[in-house]
Structures are given as structure tokens and as C-alpha cells.
Design a protein that fits this description.
five-stranded antiparallel beta sheet; 2 domains; 212 residues; alpha+beta
Length: 212
């Protein structure tokens, strides 16, 4: 068992001991459906079994990645009572306690996002729309996608030309760290880029260690 798998199992056991009614009250989009607690992550319906804590995909039946599982469990573990969207959008580096991870976020998330869709702005738009993205006004291609209902994410992309390379950025509501740990915000962004590339049928560029 890898360290990631061990961590997922530790979180699974933590989930079993959590107050489920409190989670339902504090997390928009979390619902009870038979033996599962259901939640949507980048438009993918997931079920967390109430008795075992295991997470499965209820819609597509495909395996659920370790990163996605950690996103769900850490949302459950870190959400603060009364957390709510604030409508104040920030780059990752400006989120609370994010500065130690900013350089890695640029290297491992933003540069690969830009490189993957360089020359493929239409593919970026189609991928965002497949994930339920809502187009935003302004230059370039900008979409707001719900990583979770309570954690919307804005993916911004400007294609390159002969003089400038493609650029990308990702914005979060200031409240993101009221719902989840700041390190998990990185994981949410990485899964978002993965799902976008998958929806576009593209391989992620510029990072060989993107996903375990």
C-alpha cells in the first residue's frame, strides 16, 4: 500500500467517526441517498458509503482517483461551521496560508494547464463546458466550474501567439480555505486540470509526476 493509499484509508476511518448530520448542514450539495452520502466533484457524482466510508463513482462507474478521494474526505474534515461563499475571487497565492505552496502551484498546475491547451483554445472551452462550466466575460477563455458546489473554481486561459506563450490562471473564492485545507486546494486544482485534459482528449504537458 502506497503512502497515498494509507492516507486515504486513514481519512476513510475518520469519516466513519464524523457527525454526518453536521456534515449535511455545513456542506452545500452533500445529500443522503440510500446507503450513500452523495456529492458532485467536477460534475462527477460520487457516493460515500455510510457504513464503510468507501468512495465510488455513481454515474460513470470508473475508478475514483486517490486525489479525488482526498478532496472529498478533507472537505468533510476541514469545513468550518457557517462557511459560505464570499464572492471575492483570488489567485491561489493570495489565499490564507497559501504562500509556501505558491511556487509549486505555478510549476505543477498553472504551467501544465497553459502548455496542455496551447493552440487549443476551442478544446479548452469544450472541456470546460463538459464539466458544467459557466463562461465568464473578458478576454481569453474564462469559465467557472464547481469543484464542489461550495468550492467553485475559475479557470482562465489565454492562448499564445508568435510572441507570447499561452498563459493560464486559476481563481478561488476567498472562502475556499473555510471549506477545505489550503493544501487540498492544490489537489482540487490538479484534479481540475486532469479532468479538463481528459474531457479534451489531451495529455497533460510539462509535468511527469502530475497524478499518482
Amino acid at each position: 500500500m502506497s503512502n497515498y493509499e494509507k492516507l486515504v484509508d486513514q481519512w476513510r476511518l475518520k469519516f466513519l467517526a464524523m457527525d454526518k448530520e453536521r456534515l449535511l448542514q455545513n456542506i452545500p450539495g452533500l445529500a443522503r441517498a440510500g446507503e450513500y452520502f452523495t456529492i458532485s466533484h467536477f460534475s462527477r457524482l460520487l457516493g460515500v458509503h455510510g457504513e464503510t466510508g468507501h468512495i465510488v463513482a455513481l454515474g460513470d462507474g470508473k475508478p475514483v482517483s486517490i486525489y479525488t478521494k482526498l478532496n472529498v474526505y478533507t472537505l468533510f474534515g476541514y469545513v468550518k461551521p457557517g462557511a459560505r461563499l464570499l464572492g471575492d475571487w483570488l489567485p491561489f497565492s493570495d489565499l490564507k496560508d497559501a504562500s509556501p505552496f505558491s511556487a509549486a502551484f505555478e510549476r505543477m498546475i498553472l504551467r501544465p494547464l497553459a502548455a496542455t491547451f496551447s493552440g487549443n483554445e476551442e478544446a479548452f472551452c469544450r472541456a470546460c463546458e463538459k464539466l458544467g462550466g459557466r463562461r465568464l466575460p473578458g478576454s481569453g477563455a474564462k469559465y467557472e466550474i464547481d469543484a464542489f458546489q461550495c468550492i467553485p473554481v475559475r479557470f482562465l486561459f489565454w492562448d499564445g501567439d508568435e510572441e507570447f506563450p499561452a498563459q493560464a490562471n486559476i481563481l478561488f473564492d476567498r472562502s475556499a480555505t473555510d471549506f477545505i485545507h489550503v493544501e487540498s486546494v492544490v489537489t482540487i486544482a490538479s484534479e481540475g486540470v486532469y479532468y479538463l485534459a481528459e474531457a479534451a482528449g489531451l495529455e497533460i504537458k510539462n509535468t511527469p509526476l502530475f497524478r499518482p
